[in-house]
Design brief:
The chain is mostly helical. Helix content is 48%, strand content 4%. It has one domain: dinb family like domain (Four Helix Bundle (Hemerythrin (Met), subunit A), Up-down Bundle), CATH 1.20.120.450. The chain is globular and about 45 Å long.
């Protein structure tokens, strides 16, 4: 653990995401999202999968859940997703409350990485995909302020990384006075003004 990357309680952000998911109706599952290849059901399936993977990465419980590349198949929800997602979100938050989760090496998405980087990636995934889900379903979104700041700083630090194109789209220009969430979303390669086509 470095002095510049303290542990972060992911509980408030996972709770915000669980509340968003609870409001998704069955009629919205086929709707488009800001992720061009994902309908809402695919985004929710991705959230279940990444939450399990980063829960296990935090626990250093490495295996099939942490070895699978997120792009290996189009994710989808199972019949019990409404019960499963909030459960695994709470388990992820609990796993990352252990300072040991942020130290040493771990694995997620088939990639070995330091624990503190895995924690930052998990934070980014929870914040940005929360925005994706809120926009796709027309819900208000207020991410946890600490998680949002961490997400923004993580994305800002990757702007000049030549490998970022493997994960994120090109940065979308926004004004310096734009809200922090808009700036984080833009850094992830999304248009903060995205709305479903009416």
């Amino acid at each position: 653990m470095t002095d510049t990357t303290p542990t972060l309680d992911l509980g408030p952000q996972t709770a915000a995401l669980a509340r968003l998911a609870e409001g998704v109706t069955d009629g919205q599952l086929a709707d488009p999202t800001p992720c061009p290849e994902y309908a809402v059901r695919n985004l929710l399936g991705h959230l279940v999968g990444l939450t399990v993977a980063f829960r296990d990465a935090g626990r250093k419980d490495l295996g099939a859940t942490t070895d699978t590349s997120p792009g290996s198949a189009l994710p989808d929800i199972g019949p019990g997703w409404r019960e499963e997602l909030p459960t695994v979100l709470a388990e992820l938050a609990e796993a990352w409350r252990d300072p040991a989760a942020w130290t040493g090496m771990t694995r997620a998405g088939g990639v070995d990485l330091p624990g503190e980087i895995a924690g930052l990636v998990a934070t980014d995934e929870l914040v940005i995909h929360g925005w994706d889900l809120a926009r796709a379903t027309g819900r208000p979104y207020a991410p946890d302020p600490a998680a949002l700041q961490t997400c923004h700083d993580f994305l800002a630090a990757s702007v000049d990384d030549p490998s970022r194109g493997e994960i994120f789209g090109p940065v979308v220009p926004v004004g310096p006075d734009a809200p922090l969430l808009d700036r984080a979303v833009a850094l992830s390669g999304r248009d903060p003004g995205w709305k479903p086509r009416s």
